Amino acid sequence: xxxxxxxxxxxxxxxxxxxxxxxxxxxxxxxxxxxxxxxxxxxxxxxxxxxxxxxxxxxxxxxxxxxxxxxxxxxxxxxxxxxxxxxxxxxxxxxxxxxxxxxxxxxxxxxxxxxxxxxxxxxxxxxxxxxxxxxxxxxxxxxxxxxxxxxxxxxxxxxxxxxxxxxxxxxxxxxxxxxxxxxxxxxxxxxxxxxxxxxxxxxxxxxxxxxxxxxxxxxxxxxxxxxxxxxxxxxxxxxxxxxxxxxxxxxxxxxxxxxxxxxxxxxxxxxxxxxxxxxxxxxxxxxxxxxxxxxxxxxxxxxxxxxxxxxxxxxxxxxxxxxxxxxxxxxxxxxxxxxxxxxxxxxxxxxx
Amino acid sequence: xxxxxxxxxxxxxxxxxxxxxxxxxxxxxxxxxxxxxxxxxxxxxxxxxxxxxxxxxxxxxxxxxxxxxxxxxxxxxxxxxxxxxxxxxxxxxxxxxxxxxxxxxxxxxxxxxxxxxxxxxxxxxxxxxxxxxxxxxxxxxxxxxxxxxxxxxxxxxxxxxxxxxxxxxxxxxxxxxxxxxxxxxxxxxxxxxxxxxxxxxxxxxxxxxxxxxxxxxxxxxxxxxxxxxxxxxxxxxxxxxxxxxxxxxxxxxxxxxxxxxxxxxxxxxxxxxxxxxxxxxxxxxxxxxxxxxxxxxxxxxxxxxxxxxxxxxxxxxxxxxxxxxxxxxxxxxx
Lengths: 352, 334
Hints:
- Helices cover about 30% and strands about 20% of the residues of chain A.
- Chain A contains 10 helices and 12 strands.
- Chain A has helices at about 80-90, 110-120, 140-150, 155-165, 185-195, 215-230, 240-250, 265-270, 275-285, 325-330, and strands at about 30-45, 50-65, 70-75, 95-100, 105, 120-125, 200-205, 235-240, 250-255, 260-265, 335, 345.
- In chain A, helix 3 (about 140-150) packs parallel to helix 5 (about 185-195).
- The model of chain A is unreliable at about 1-25 (pLDDT under 50).
- Chain B has helices spanning about 50-60, 85-90, 105, 115-125, 130-145, 150-155, 165-175, 195-210, 220-225, 245-250, 255-260, 300-305, and strands at about 10-20, 25-35, 40-45, 65-75, 80, 95-100, 180-185, 215-220, 230-235, 240-245, 310-315, 320, 330.
- In chain B, the strands form 2 sheets. In chain B, strands 6-7-8-3-9-10-12-11-13 form a 9-stranded mixed β-sheet, with helices on both faces. A 4-stranded antiparallel β-sheet of chain B has the order 2-1-4-5, covered by helices on one side.
- The longest helix of chain B has 18 residues, at about 195-210.
- Chain B is globular and about 65 Å long.
- The model of chain B has no long low-confidence stretch (mean pLDDT about 85).
- The chains are: A alpha/beta, B alpha/beta.
- The interface between A and B is large, with 40 and 41 residues.
């Protein structure tokens, strides 16, 4: 595995309470810039482990995330959206490409620098039953970050933890309970408190509500929106639920088999999506209105595996409109003529 | 097949199920009642823990200790399943009533080829069949499900199949005996949306072909809107509202159903907070007396906290257990 050469960034100055100022960066610079990112995993197959294969989880992906954005990343299971999120926090190995956070490369960070990144970029996991330590009290769970990052000491830790717990809807009674005493929605709020107590700038939310019921989901989504405004947060919101993403995000990226196939403002994508895959996804959403049954476009077959994906467009084998060119040449993201912020990776984008 | 039979296929009357745990008695189901007509798809909707799956398992009499069916009747073609002995019940399970589980890979045997698993179902219920014909029928069934190269898929093991393919195999296994009733417990929740669309379409087609009735359990109201003829909404072990899908979704009568429909973010305005039902689902160890939704209900009256509302009969085969209808509607007969 090769990582891109990078200089070690100097340790950042801790400003836990002040909202993060944009250090010398102009407003037009993205908070997070991902360029041509590849995350590949090498696997060995066969009885003798002789056959080598590569799982191309993320393939030549580029993405800009601006401060204050809620970027919704959608796609089906196995499309690489979770791997992308994990690569940003250093939990997945980057094969090639760069990830810049506030202008500094954060690929392959180690030691102190990785530690600083952890404070600035926090991750909320999908399953709140697996992401909270079962033998620690809520106070310990939420306060550990403060202690590790030397943001507070002694009773101050408890005070800050309590303030944050109150913000997400708990009281002092909940401070010394264990994770198993809470429901799924409550656990997800504890996970949020644990992330936010460090005052991160970027929060990666990996399917934060897919383990929850709709009524609890509504509570969590409302809370996420409030917190985003209040703490001036930037979200990378990973989800397979287009309804949730439409409600939450101002920009959307659609992934298929490790590649970004379409990205743009939420309104533009829902009004007039360009990529055939996005159209299929949108049409697969079951309609709540029994009088307007959706005319779903049914796809043939299952999503191909990311082990040695096809050479041309990743979607070509299932695409209802695929032509010869699609099978040989991989399309790159190109802006739409009338709306330059709306990009599509398709040789024959839908312009109807 | 064309005999006029107006008797409903399944009729559940005031089913009450409790679980006797170390922490206390869980009042899992209280007064659950619904009817399922022939060749109809009934959706059982509600959130986690509301008793959807317990209801489904009760129909198959698969409630294990510490759970117990306390009272009620489950009439399947006029016969009360709760009075049958276990041997008779076993001939009904799988041949007349089948069930598709949520996680297809958990319900398939990992060390038996899927074709043989489908054939086994046939061999158990149709003694006259030999192994070879049973295998051939299994392959036929897979072909009917639109699986390319069914003979090859039949020789595969479950781990070699994708989630969507495994669920198709499950459906094949459950429908190969042509049951009269198919219970589908969240058949697509573990699948991606594009695969979900395929599976739902397929189920609709097959159900029409073999003239089966379906009890569809789902927490996804969109899935329900697309597949069901009638729906029953459950809350905390109670059936709160039943009726034709159109009527319930367009004109919900119970405050819980109304709230549930409003929490779905699909069509919500991103500028406004989502509607959310205040409070939490009550513990079924000590369920509220009276209406179980009353502590969270915006319209709750004194009466709601004290007595259990009866089912009121509303226009067009629509029933709702809520005192808000006490003045205008008649109490439905049990």
